Amino acid sequence: MAKEITIYDIAKELSVSAATVSRALQDHRAINANTKRRVITKAEEMGYRSNQFASNLRRRKTNTLGVIVPRLNSHFVSTALAAMEKIASDAGYNIIISQSMESGAKEIMNAKTMFENRVDGLIVSLAYDTDSFEHFEKFAGKGIPVIFFDRVFDGGDIASIVIDNFRNACDITKHLAEQGCRRIMHITGNLKRNVYSERFNGYKQALAEAGLPWTNDLLLETDLSEKAGADAAEKIMAMPQKPDGIFVANDICAATCMHVLQQNGFLIPNDMAVAGFNNDPVSRIAEPNITTINYPAHQMGELAATYMINHLTGAASIHTTNKIILKSELLIRASSLRKK
Amino acid sequence: MAKEITIYDIAKELSVSAATVSRALQDHRAINANTKRRVITKAEEMGYRSNQFASNLRRRKTNTLGVIVPRLNSHFVSTALAAMEKIASDAGYNIIISQSMESGAKEIMNAKTMFENRVDGLIVSLAYDTDSFEHFEKFAGKGIPVIFFDRVFDGGDIASIVIDNFRNACDITKHLAEQGCRRIMHITGNLKRNVYSERFNGYKQALAEAGLPWTNDLLLETDLSEKAGADAAEKIMAMPQKPDGIFVANDICAATCMHVLQQNGFLIPNDMAVAGFNNDPVSRIAEPNITTINYPAHQMGELAATYMINHLTGAASIHTTNKIILKSELLIRASSLRKK
DNA sequence: CATTGCTCCGCAACCGATTGCGTTTTTTAA
DNA sequence: TTAAAAAACGCAATCGGTTGCGGAGCAATG
Q1: Is any Cβ of chain A less than 8 angstroms from the Cβ of B37?
Q2: Model confidence over B54-96: pLDDT tens digits?
Q3: Is the pLDDT of residue B2 over 70?
Q4: CA-CA to B292 of 20 to 30 Å: which in A5, A265, A304, B41?
Q5: Per CATH, which fold does B165-295 belong to?
Q6: Which of A72, A113, A224 would best serve as a mutation to test chain B binding (most B beta carbons within 10 A)?
Q7: What is the layout of strands, in order, in the sheet containing B184-188?
C-alpha cells in the first residue's frame, strides 16, 4: 500500500513545476523535448500513475461511454457489446456497462448512475417495459449524446441504429407462404418494443399480400426464452386448428419450440415450417438448421460506438442524422424449405 | 448545456455551508433531519447531480470494479458477467469491462487502463497466451484486490475461483469409456491455460484407469470456435484409425463437429459418442443433445463479485482464502448414451 | 448558577491534475 | 547592439466534494 505518487512528487524530484510535469506528460508543445524525456523517465522510475479523477474533474470529461442493455447474456447483445468495446478501447474510451434486466425501473436507476458518473456518451437498447423517455432527457439537457440501438423509441428524433424489422418480417413471412404455409403463426416478445411490433406488422402485411387471413390465435406474445419456446410448442399442440408454419422472433425460442414439436412427431419443415430471427449460433446447429434473419450484431455495435466517438471528438455530429438502418437479410435454411 | 449545479449553489440558496449540504446528502448523522429534508428537496429542485470524480478524488476510491475477460461474446463469459454486474450494481458498484481478445499484450494494456482508472478491485479471466503475472502485481502492490475466475494461474497464491476441470474431464472420459468407446479423442484449446491442461490431464488419467492407450493423434489443439469444430470433423474423417468417441472442451465446437460428422454419415452416439463442456444452450438444442458438464457460469460470476465486494467492504478478506472450487457435474445426454 | 454533554453546523484544508496568463530566457530580425 | 518574437516554464486559481476539528447553542445535571 505504498504512497501514491503524484506529479508534485515528480516535480520536486526534478526541480520543475507541477505544471511542467503535467504538460510534459501530455506531450504539450510548449515543453522542451529534453524536459519531456526527463519527466517521462522519472515518472516511469517512480512508478507514477496518473489520477484520472483529478483529471476528469478538471477537464470535465471522463473518456467513458455508458452502455445500458436489457441483459448481457444474449448472443446478440454480447456480440454487439464486444464490438463496441473494441472500438471504444481503440479510441481510448472505457465503457461501463449495466443491464436493465428488462425492467424499466432498473433502467431508470442505471441511467441515473451513468448520469452521475458523467459518462461522455450513452448507448442504449431499451428494456421490455420502458414507456418513458424522461430518464434520457436529462442527458440531452446536458449535451450528452445518447444513441439507441436495436430496441429504440418508435417516434421522436433520437439517434438510433436499427435494422428494418418490418421488411425482414415481411420477407420471412412471405417466404413461408411461398413454401406453402397457409396458417402461419407468430411468436414474439413484448409488442411494446419497436423490434417486435415492427416484426408483427411486417408479418401481417405479408399475410395480407399473400391473401392469407390473420386471426388472433395466430399470435403468441412471450418472453422469447428457451422455456417459452417449449411452452409455445405445448400450446400449439393443444390448438384445435394448428398452424403449418411458425415465425418466431428469436432463434433460441424457435429452436426449443421446434425441438419439442419434433419430439412429438412433427416433421420439420413438412408438418411445420419454422423460422427464427437473429442468426444465433443455435440456428446453425439445430437440426434442421433454422431459417432466420442475419442480424448484424457486430456491425451494429461497431457502428454505434464509432458514431458516438466521432460525435464526441467532433468529427461528425449525431444530430445531423437520426436513424441508421443496417442491412440484414433472410437466410433460408432447411427448417422452412419444402420445395427444392 | 445548462450550468452544472454544485453543492455550493445549494448551500448558497439555503444559507448553509457546503459541508452541511454534503453531509445532508450522505445522510450523515450529525445533520438535523429537517435540514436534510430541506437540502434534499432543494437539490432535487435545482436538478443537482453529484460529481463522482470530485468525490472519488477526495475519498480515494471509485466504487468501480474492473473486469477483464478474453472475449465478451461467449455464453459462459456473458453469463458470468451478467451475474457480476447484478451483484455489483446492487452493492452500488459500477463495472467497467474490457476484453483481451485472447491476446496477452492487449490484456496488459487493459490492466494498465484499469490501474489508472483506479478500479477498487479487478476480476480477471486470462487470455490464451498470458505468461506473466507482472501486470497484475502492480495491483497487489497498491493493495488492490485481484480475483481470477475460470482461467487462472496454475500456481501461486492468487485468489481464484474455478471448477474442478481435472475431475470433470475424468468423469466425462470415464463415462465415454463405460459406453464402450475404445479410442477417445480430445479436442481442446490452448494447453497453456489451466482449464484446458487440467481437462487434458483428467482425460488422460481416465484413459489410464480404463486401461485405454493414449497416443498423440488423439489430441487436437484448436481455438474451439464453431469453425474449429467443422475442421476437426474433417480431420477425423481423414484419420487412418478413427476414434469412436470425442470429448471436446466446449459445446459450440462439439456441436459443429458432431454436425459435420452426421452429415457425412456418422451415427451419433453409435459410430461416435460425443461430449462437450459448459452446458451451453446449443448442447440442449443440438440433435442428439450433447453430453456436457454443467458449468456454473452464473454462480461463478456471482461468487467472484460477492467475494470481491465483501473484501472491499471489509466483511471478509480475500487473503484468507485463495482458491474456491465450484461444484459442477456431468450431464449425460443422448450424444453419448449407447446403453439404456 | 456553573458545569457537563449533546446536537448541529461552519471553517478550511485537502484530493491531484489542468490551464490561462504572465515571466524569463533564448533566438531571430533589424 | 537592440528591439521584437518565439520558446520554455512557473504561478496560482480551479474543478466539486469530503472531513477533522472546533465552536455555538441548548438542555440536563449537580
Answers
A1: no
A2: 999 999 988 999 999 999 999 999 999 999 999 999 998 999 9
A3: no
A4: A265
A5: Rossmann fold (3.40.50)
A6: A72
A7: B219-221, B184-188, B245-248, B273-275
